[in-house]
Amino acid sequence: MIITIDGPASAGKGTLAKKLADAMGYAYFDTGMVYRAVGLEMMLSGQDVEQESLAENFAKKLTFSKMISLSQKPEFRGPENGNNASKVAAYASVRAALLKMQQDFAQNPQLEDGSVAQGVIYDGRDTGTVVCPQADLKLFVTASSEVRAMRRHKEFLGKGLEISYEEVLRDVKSRDERDSGRAAAPLKPAADALIIDTSDLNAQEVFEKVSAIIADKN
Ligand code: C5P
């Protein structure tokens, strides 16, 4: 079974996807990592993420193992690289170069210990619309921008990053605008996606709600 979970930043997709993958023994692909990897590699080598052709070259050379090793760096999940990622993700050429790596994952899904998984959970912005339109279940997880900024702010503070709530809210809104307004794979629910609003739900409640949907389907 393939499940896709799309939605805006900090809506709770990652937490839900990880919990579901653990509970079901499925492999998990956080597809934002491919764009974060390109953004971080460019930043570390002093390249300008505003230059599409440069970003495309980095995207073409990215491998899954390189992405995993870049993800170990502390800046990978930081706000600056979130912005880099959303900039390079707006380029159609970058998206095209990174599509196959994402699609291949479902052909041979493996757990971290190397064993074969019976299914895959994708999380991102376009996994139900572009990466895996044949998915068995498509979810679009969302929440108000204020609630999402609050969650992200808490996460950054937990990691020792000094940043104000207002700055995080501005960042969430500008990323939303870029993700929804871009011509290449704009953020939108697939026509057959179920919309889950997590504004008033905690992580466990979201997990239980979606687990019930999956149980109904089986
Ligand atoms: O989810 P995360 O914050 O790690 O994603 C970083 C950026 O990558 C997002 O702001 C979005 O612009 C982009 N992205 C995307 N398509 C995906 C996943 C992420 O465009 N499937």
List the helices and strands and how they pair.
Blueprint: E1 2-6, H1 13-24, E2 27-30, H2 32-44, H3 52-61, H4 64-70, H5 79-88, H6 92-107, E3 120-124, H7 127-131, E4 137-142, H8 145-158, H9 165-181, E5 194-197, H10 203-217
Parallel strand pairs: 1-3, 1-4, 2-3, 4-5
Helix pairs in contact: 1-10, 2-3, 2-4, 2-5, 3-6, 5-9, 8-9
What's this entry about, in short?
The protein is of the alpha/beta class. It is 55% helix and 11% strand. It has a five-stranded parallel sheet with strand order 2-3-1-4-5, with helices on both faces.
Please provide a written account of the structure.
With 218 residues, this protein is of the alpha/beta class. It has one domain (2-217): Rossmann fold (3-Layer(aba) Sandwich). Helices cover 55% and strands 11% of the residues. It has ten helices and five strands; from the N terminus they run E-H-E-H-H-H-H-H-E-H-E-H-H-E-H. A five-stranded parallel sheet has the order 2-3-1-4-5, with helices on both faces. The radius of gyration is 17 Å and the shape is globular. It starts with a strand and ends with a helix. The mean pLDDT is 95. It binds cytidine-5'-monophosphate (C5P). The site of cytidine-5'-monophosphate has 15 residues, from helix 2, helix 5 and helix 9.
